[in-house]
Amino acid sequence: MSILIAGAGIGGLTAALSLHAAGFEDVRIVEAARELRPLGVGLNILPNAVRELAELGLYEELAAVAVLTGELSFRNRHGSVIWNEPRGLAAGYRWPQLSIHRGRLQSVLAEAVRDRLGAGAIVTDARVVDVTELSDGRVEVLLNDAAGRPTQTVADLLVGADGIHSAVRGVLYPDEGPPPWNGLIVWRGTTWSEPYLNGSTMVIAGDDQQKLVLYPMSTGAAPTDQVLMNWATARRADSTEPEYRADWNRPVHPDKFLRYFADWKFDWLDVPGLLSTAAEAYEYPMVDRDPLPRWTFGRVTLLGDAAHAMYPVGSNGATQSIVDGRVLAHHLAVRGDVDEALAAYEQERRPAMTQLQSSNRQMGPEIVIGLAHERAPEGFDDIHEVIPEAELRAISERYAQVGAFDPATVNSRPSYSVQRIRRSG
Ligand SMILES: Cc1cc2nc3c(=O)[nH]c(=O)nc-3n(C[C@H](O)[C@H](O)[C@H](O)COP(=O)(O)OP(=O)(O)OC[C@H]3O[C@@H](n4cnc5c(N)ncnc54)[C@H](O)[C@@H]3O)c2cc1C
User: Cβ < 6 Å from ligand 1: which residues?
Assistant: First the structure.
């Protein structure tokens, strides 16, 4: 079976590796970018996806360029603790949680694809612009290079892993329009800085109107003991329409948002100092996609952000795109019939992702910072007089169950790896 994947992002690359590991040999990726460059800032990969990357044999290489996230700390805008919880190995998972630069993760995955599937497995400068189902059930894909020159290719199966502005999804849902915006603007970036707290803590501070997400994501490259911090701030925008299309790499000067954080000085962190010394900064409207009633049409299916883009809360965007590829490859390998396999993939993934998308629209686990602000806008002495511990714990546990990444599920569910089966034809 020939399988074509649109998009060499985290989801598409993992899908290619998973399909290859499951015995599929004719797997190609077409990527719109002229070359793969290590773009983006930080991602957190939850243990359920780290398990998948480990089972693909990539754990050591990734851990070497990541920080193992040990704790998640929710705080109010004064820096006071609302809720702390252990993460990854410290929470009892058999696999850690990784804070990693998106570009580094993508590079490790892309190198593995070229190593295992062949140097030509990723075709760059090939943007999917149209998809047609042929009468024999195969799929014809129209590609354009950057100059607009067209080429065509045919595959038995097309996997649309082409991100939040997916062209494949656009063919399946031509009337959908741009991703909906919730009115928040995200400013993201990186800063080399001294470690804070225990050196492996992810902090989410603020409330539902303005917040900061911060974590260390790599060490070693700086001449001192500094760590590369990933930060993302979000704030309700003054306008009702974003002035630009959601683009991960739109640069911004920190002066644009520094004033909103001028008094965010905690005894363990100087937020304005961190933001003003950024090595790079970008802005992005907080957009997602509406859940879809269906991902698969004939021999075309969707995966990752193309299928279920969600607000960046709870570290699930890249995490779930990794799991998608493994589940898709598993069902294609263990079921004789492709239509049945695609149905099984969609049945396993789509309802769960719909729930996560909805939960993220309610801020997911970050709802605790909104609750603390609503009940104690001026701060608190004892958080448990504001939000009982049981309520805080229940919010965290419920979210992990929605995403199927609670420790019991991740540690004990069967592997998606399959015995390699030699296929002919
Ligand atoms: C450049 C970039 C930087 C990012 N930076 C961050 C970040 O800093 N922090 C964060 O949390 N998330 C970031 N993300 C998003 C995050 O990586 C995704 O939410 C998540 O990994 C899901 O991955 P995905 O593979 O489904 O989609 P994506 O990672 O978006 O990958 C989609 C891929 O498809 C390609 N593509 C798009 N249209 C076409 C087409 N028509 N034909 C062929 N290929 C196409 C894109 O160039 C891209 O390589 C970034 C995404 C991109 C593309």
Answer: 6-12, 30-33, 39-41, 43, 102, 127-128, 161-163, 167, 248-249, 304-306, 312, 317-318, 321
